[in-house]
Design a protein that fits this description.
seven-stranded mixed beta sheet; alpha/beta; 25 strands; Aconitase, domain 3; globular; five-stranded parallel beta sheet
Length: 605
């Protein structure tokens, strides 16, 4: 039976010779990782359930979200992890190391064909070397540390063929922003993507990492590149153990196949608010900026640093503009130092911080304030993700040129005189208090309740439960912050009642892998969420927490109104609108979902 690249990797790590889309199988995990913000919750789960660690040598902590340890709550969580690691013989890549996914490649723990799970929602970055990586929530990671494996639903695969030559002025970041322009945030939701074509063969490791790192923003499970000889040679020189590279069979089945002419790709920018809101950079040229950020798991590689240094050499950052540069790993940082790049950055007026993720998780540098306009090489620009300001996403070349110009610019169009500020912008910040509500949900198969009709797609985890609250580990304390970063629903936690049900659109829960974005609803006593589709990690987290989530494609036909009452049969998927007695079907609980639900959670008895 022919298989795709992902199917081959997963089959090789299961008890089956062949796996098919839709099947739920247990997957052996080669490397199991918890980061600093998720690590304390993983430790809490392990301790609360008295679980042991299987294969400590395959188990890691990576402190990459706040590698400076500059936030007290992060520092506390990091030390919780250190103490646990000492007790159990677990390797810690501490605040001097860099981004966990990149470290796994550099240190040879991950090679083509490997499997990895992490509390990092961008663990699928490992598709760059033809490996399987998946971001998961705290329960999943605790289960993986204990069992050495996790259950996984085999996704359908999509094949994308690149035709033509990528233009010289189009970077790997531009490539993925062009893909986001084509596919948006949810048209490939839940798929495994494989990319092929002559131009793909010429992409080096850094290019592939940039493209794979934004699979999550496309709603995909992973973007996989078949490993080339140079990738295999790189990994072979670093690998801790022998590995087998996998390649899709020629007659493998793909649910969809696309052929894209890359000759037409242009330098792109994502406008603030949504990574997939991409436009030609020419449409935003001249937009005044306050700050610029270069780094993240998407663009903190050596290739990126070299491109930035070429632009910054013998130039200065525009007056009043702050440029922050964060290499992805300490190895890259040291190479920048040895090759004179740090000197170039500092002479240009940039702040260079130690290796790590930086702004993505309210840690280290990269945050901005209310009214601040930032241009960033990151992968996300959801409201509030990097602070209270607005964030444009672009390539390292565009970000560096913009920092010098003082406004959005390209490297071939930097003005002789930088754009200057006319007057400072005022910033305001509102403090919103929440009242704690207790979870009164009972684990029954038929539920009934009042609905909240939220007609919006792509509600991300930062809207649901903002990253500034990630240090909270007690579920009872989470409900008060639910939706407080979601415009129009900031008072949700005050108005929601135990037993309410949320009905919403496509791709609910896209974004980060945080378990709190599920648990906050349990904290309020919300009974269930019905959506047209869910972010893949979010759906797993909800299932594992025994929190009912159902997919219903017929929502537009249900004639629902706010405050309607509905009745849901979780086992059959039947939904009845009690106002008009109309009956519709959602996808019923799978056997796995219902078993976990009855147990009260993945880690339950």
């Amino acid at each position: 039976m022919a298989m795709t690249l992902l199917e081959k990797i997963l089959a090789a790590h299961s008890k089956y010779k062949v796996v098919h889309p839709g099947e739920i199988v247990d997957i052996e995990i080669d490397s199991r990782v918890a980061r600093d913000f998720g690590g304390a919750n993983v430790v809490k789960n392990l301790n609360d359930f008295g679980l042991t660690i299987k294969d400590p040598e395959k188990t890691f902590f990576t402190f990459d979200c706040n590698p400076t340890g500059s936030d007290q709550k992060y520092a506390v969580n990091q030390h919780i992890c250190r103490l646990f690691a000492r007790e159990h013989g677990i390797k810690v890549y501490d605040i001097d190391a860099g981004i966990g996914t990149h470290i796994l490649i550099e240190e040879g723990y991950v090679s083509p064909g490997s499997t990895v799970v992490s509390t990092d929602s961008h663990a699928n970055i490992l598709g760059a070397i033809g490996a399987f990586g998946q971001g998961m929530g705290d329960m999943d990671i605790a289960a993986a540390w204990h069992n050495g494996k996790v259950w996984f639903k085999i996704p359908s695969s999509v094949k994308i063929n690149f035709e033509g030559k990528i233009p010289d002025n189009v970077s790997s970041k531009d490539v993925v922003l062009n893909l986001l322009k084509i596919f948006g945030a949810n048209s490939l939701l839940g798929y495994s993507i494989e990319i092929y074509g002559p131009s793909v063969d010429n992409l080096d490791l850094d290019d592939r990492i940039t493209i794979s790192s934004m699979a999550t923003e496309m709603g995909a499970i992973i973007i996989l590149f078949p490993p080339t000889k140079s990738i295999i040679d790189y990994c072979s020189a670093r690998a801790k153990t022998k590995f087998e590279s996998f390649f899709a069979d020629k007659d493998a089945h793909y649910d969809k196949t696309y052929t894209i002419d890359v000759n037409g790709f242009k330098p792109m920018v994502s406008r603030p608010g949504e990574p997939h809101d991409t436009v030609n950079v020419s449409e935003v040229l001249g937009k005044k900026i306050d700050s610029a950020f270069i780094g993240s798991c998407t663009n903190g590689r050596m290739n990126d640093m070299n491109k930035v240094a070429t632009i910054l050499k013998n130039r200065k950052v525009a007056p009043g503009v702050v440029l922050k540069i964060v290499p992805a790993t300490d190895e890259i940082w040291k190479q920048c130092l040895n090759e004179g790049l740090i000197d170039i950055f500092k002479k240009a007026g940039a702040l260079v911080s130690n290796a790590g993720c930086a702004g993505c998780a309210e840690g280290q540098v990269g945050q901005n304030g209310s009214g601040e306009v930032t241009i960033s090489t990151g992968n996300r620009n959801f409201p509030g993700k990097q602070g209270k300001g607005s964030v444009y996403l672009a390539s390292p070349e565009v970000v560096a040129a913009s920092a010098v110009a003082g406004c959005i610019s390209t490297s071939d169009n930097i003005p002789e005189m930088p754009c200057l500020f006319l007057r400072p912008e005022k910033t305001t910040q509102a403090q919103i208090k929440r009242h704690l509500k207790k979870n009164v949900v009972e684990k029954i198969s038929v539920i009934e309740g009042r609905i909240w009709l939220i007609q919006k797609d792509n509600i991300d985890t930062d809207m649901i439960f903002h990253n500034r609250y990630l240090a909270i580990t007690e579920i009872k304390d989470m409900g008060q912050y639910t939706f407080d970063n979601f415009k129009g629903f900031e008072d949700f936690s005050k108005k929601a009642k135990p037993g309410d049900i949320i009905v919403t659109g496509k791709n609910f829960g896209c974004g980060s892998s945080r378990q709190q974005a599920v648990d906050c609803f349990s904290s309020l006593g919300i009974q269930a969420i019905i959506a047209e589709s869910f972010g893949a990690i979010y759906e797993r987290n909800a299932i594992n927490a025994a929190f009912p989530v159902l997919i219903c494609k017929e929502l537009a036909e249900m004639d629902l109104k706010n405050d309607d009452s509905i009745k849901i049969n979780l086992k059959t998927g039947q939904i009845e609108n009690l106002r008009n007695e109309k009956i519709f079907k959602a996808e019923p609980f799978s056997d796995v979902q219902f078993e976990v639900y009855q147990k009260g959670g993945l880690l339950g008895a």
